[in-house]
Amino acid sequence: MNFERSNILKPILDNLEVDDQILFSSIAPPIFTRLKGLEVSTSAAQLVFQGFRDVLTKRGDAILSEMDNGLKGADIKDFDKLAEGLKAELMERLESALKLATPEFLSSTESIRSRINHPNMPSETALSDSIEKCKPRWLAKVDFICENLRATRLQTRIQQPMPEGSKSRVFVSHSSNDKPFVKKLTESLKGHNLNVWLDEEELQVGDSIVTGISQGLKNADYLVAVLSQASISSRWVQAELNSALMEELSGKGVTVLPVLVEDCELPSLLKDRVYADFRRDFNTGLQKLLAVLEQEGESTEDVAPKVAASGALCSKKLSAITLADLRRRITRRMDRDEVSALWFAVLETRMENDMVGRQLSECVISLLEKAKSRNKLPLLIEEICQDRPDLANP
Fold it and tell me: Which residues in 198-215 are b (16+ Cβ under 10 Å) and which e?
């Protein structure tokens, strides 16, 4: 089988298989020692069965333990293929152990079977039946091993500090099936001096889970969700989205920006959101996405010079930060009613009429966009300083 464990686990598991040949032939003698003095009965046969069953069960656990230990620190490129391969490997190793154990078991109980014919006698398939019952637990353990490997790898990569001097920090969530589009998108974003987090080896399907993503989002301003038939079917992309949306709803400043690359059923939580449409023209979609991302790298002093000259301490402080920092402070510290009041004071319209059903983070982005385009950022900062001067402090 062509997957990453081949040159890592094979020697270890091959040694286990050699040990099996010695192990199962040595099970019967100690069991028969325990049976001395007992009558030949179905109970005696059950004890023999239990001995073999327990050893087989421990063998399955040992195989999983060797897989877990052998893969630590390994450079895995495709976790879905790894999980698939490990499950096949596990089943192959168990089948091999079962083939060694079954003849020994039948030989050990042959004298009892020849003398007793009873419904409670362990059947010839008792060991294989027992293994079948254990398979769901073992297969779930393989998934657990792979998910832990994903989490460890992702945390190592996303905890690396982002470069200084760039604009908004962008985390791209996608399926590996969309690799060509994602490559083009990230190159375009980086070309506009945007700080894009993307695994250099590409985020394969299943490359991240909530435990890793939650850490990564602490370093990001935006999660750009690349939506396609492949990504909406990926439980790992869904995990990234759900984690980002929870961060957004909790007011931590992370904003989810949907990017549509082909016709697909949008996730329910994103259906009412404005998205960047790349389906017909890449450049059109890119400009819509950049309209949100690029403005946040600007200093409020650049777009609101009147406020910077006013001399007020709060205004000076807010004028010295980027629009991205201003957005995060508003999103994290002001509730919806406060943002709605700020919207009305600056734009003279009701936020509820313009942003029906929108998340607070989207409302704040729109507020800043509109205030900037109408040259009302000085007024916005003045209103903030009057009602919430604490926003001037980090």
Answer: beeebbbbbbbbbbbbbe
Q: What is the DSSP letter of 354?
A: H
Q: Which of these, 213, 201, 211, lies nearest to 241 by C-alpha position?
A: 213
Ramachandran category for residue 319: left, alpha or beta (phi over 0 → left; psi -120 to 50 → alpha): alpha
What is the secondary structure of 126-140 as a DSSP string? Answer: HHHHHHHHHHHHHHH
Q: Which residue has the tokens 């087989």?
A: 56
pTM: predicted TM-score of the whole model, two decimal places = 0.45
CB-CB neighbours of 107 under 10 Å:
11
**Residue 125, phi-psi category: left (phi > 0), alpha (psi -120 to 50), beta (remainder):** alpha
Is 169-296 a CATH 3.40.50.10140 domain?
A: yes
For residues 270 and 258, the answer to whether their CB atoms sit within 8 Å is yes
Domain boundaries, the chain: 6-158, 169-296, 299-392
What region, left, alpha or beta, does residue 193 occupy, with left being phi > 0 and alpha being psi -120 to 50 degrees? left
Confidence band of 321 (pLDDT split at 50, 70, 90): confident
